[in-house]
Write a structure and sequence with these properties.
The complex is a heterodimer of chains A (about 280) and B (about 300). With about 280 residues, chain A is α/β, with parallel strands linked by helices. Helix content of chain A is about 40%, strand content about 20%. In chain A, helix 1 packs parallel to helix 8 (about 195-210). In chain A, about 45% of the residues are buried. Chain B has about 300 residues and is an all-alpha fold. Helix content of chain B is about 80%, strand content about 0%. In chain B, helix 1 (about 5-50) packs across helix 2 (about 60-65). Classes of the chains: A alpha/beta (about 280), B mainly alpha (about 300). At the A-B interface, strand 5 and helix 5 of A face helix 8 and helix 9 of B.
Chain lengths: ~280, ~300
Amino acid sequence: MSTIDAGSAAFAAAAEPSTRNVSAGIAIDMRGLSLTFQTADAPVVALDDINLTIRRGEFVSLIGPSGCGKTTLLRVIADLEAPSAGHIAVNGVSALAARLDRAYGYVFQAPALYAWRSVQRNVMLPLEIIGMPAAERKARAARYLSMVGLAGFERKFPWQLSGGMQQRVSIARALAFEPELLLMDEPFGALDEITRDHLNDQLLRLWEQTGKTVVFVTHSISEAVFLSNRIVVMSPRPGRILEIIGNDLPAGRRLDVRETTRFLDVAHRVRQALRAGHSYDD
Amino acid sequence: MTTEALLSAERFTSLGPRVAPVVTILVLLTAIWYAAAVWLNAPQVVDRFESDGKPWNLRQLVEATWSMERPVLPAPHQIARNFFETVFETPIDSKRSLVYHAGITVSATLLGFVFGTVLGVLLAVGIVHSPVLDRSLLPWIIASQTVPILAIAPMVVVVLGSLGFVGLFPKAVISMYLCFFPVTIGMVKGLRSPDPLQLDLMRSYSASGAQVLRKLRWPAATDFLFASLKVAIATSLVGAIVGELPTGAQAGLGARLLSGSYYGQTIQIWSALIMASIVGVVLVALVGVAESLVARHMGRRA
């Protein structure tokens, strides 16, 4: 973890990261966004009238029960799904143009590693596609693999790794690309709690250092509160935004912030909002 | 018991489960073969004995049925002797050498295999990338395989011959006609085998179609490719042998089969058949070796 320690030292030296992070400029703007899937029996409304603006450098979590459309929303931002109605702009251009411009890195729920590539070559895959020189690809892969705690695993193949390690490789793969916008779909969902805490901590520091914009889908309230500037609470069928909760916890959070009253207070508000979304199910 | 005896006993038991069944079947088949040789060749032998007018016994009958020059069914040792003579004791450049004929057939097989693999892969890539090709080509590809190769082969030889192509090339074309099919079918499936998530990943990098093919579809199709290639090389050999039949039986294993049947040289036919089987097994095994080399390079679990 020496890279991380060096990184956090660099972070400590950086002046006022929180003000730098949430700078002017809009990363993602969605207005009246809807998406209906045509299925064999009946159309399914996955997203209904989504209005959300995410500023550059913000860390926004999407939280809600299964089937609330949070993954679909992330896929719309990534131009992996096309909305049925409404307007979306990513970096001021259409989602398609942003994708073609390689504006984002995407971490899927499953690692989606290529079985025939070693860990190192999996991380280098996007770098090969953008045509980065070989030496730089290797350096990037080494840097981000050590960031996720997998230095020394370069030559292993995916089947030789545990599920959690595979997911960390997929995170390193998205980071190695060094995109300004990170779209993460429950990236730590399959990990054990210790690893999850560790990666939460690292992700937060990375964000603080680099000022990336992060859109983060999660099931976990404490993860959302720990990481985000804002928490978007969604409800299922149809997928709607119930409430957007601003998180006023100060920057430079460490894991033990989760035991403070202010943290529990924000978590409580998120839980209340989630419950409100569920009430009609009872 | 000495250590040596223990070791050999252990070796026997460890080999036993795998070797014993094979040996048993081999012995059984050989016995049936010898018996069948007696049964099938006896009428001719009895005719000869009776025209000679001398008395004969069962032992003479059995010996005679196993040593005829042109038996209906030659005995295994006759085939083995002929095979040994024509492979090891005849100069390789001689027209009587089975190695010479096998060499000719193998070159047509390999050339046809290369043509067929290239054609098969190109068709598969086209079909996977173009819905129009998918709908228009696939029925024709399947229909092409329902036409008996024996009907196609003479036409290919005649047409190509009139264009000035003789010898290796027409045979390779016939091989290609047979062996592109499993490659196309296998590779269409293989190139479509990546799961949606793996494809989404490529899309998120806005990778070009060529990059998706090279970095995802092609490596994902490797297993399918080698399974197809094993079938393809075996059918390519059949194609080459069939292609040698209408050429007037100049050279090759097919020619040995044909001339053998012209002159009633059944032993020669069987030798050529044995050679064809050995060539087939070796070719498929070579594809298997290539597969395991590639699999190791791609980090496959041992």
